[in-house]
Design a protein that fits this description.
By secondary structure, the chain is an all-alpha fold. 76% of the residues lie in helices and 0% in strands. It contains four helices and no strands. It has helices at 4-31, 41-71, 76-96, 103-127. It is elongated and about 55 Å long. It starts with a helix and ends in an 11-residue tail after the last helix.
Length: 138
Amino acid sequence: MPIPATLITAGLLGLVFLALTVRVVGRRVSGKIMIGDGGDSQMLERIRAHANFTEHVPLTLILMAGIEITAGHHSPWLWLSGGLLVLARIAHAIGMSRPSPNPFRAGGALISWGLILALSLWALWLGLGLQPPSPDYI
């Protein structure tokens, strides 16, 4: 079964991941920092933005894929979840390079957490067999 909502979301997030990776590597090269953050606050910000992405995105994509395989890609909520995840992770990465607190970092984090909560509950609903009979139920 095709899972276009998850695949498109993963493809876009893959590009964001590469951009974050390039930022980390660029700072490593310019600062001659081969391991850790070298005491460089900018390096630490870039490492944390990259790490935070890798901490949140995989689980969210797994939840999306499971939902899409189980319920199909007919729900606009699944597509909206993917779009929000992309925007949230970009906002969070931007916010990591700004003084805290700031709306980009906070908004990106809160939206990511909200998506994980909503998708987890949706996955539990489907896993427990509580879905309505129509594939276009949401």
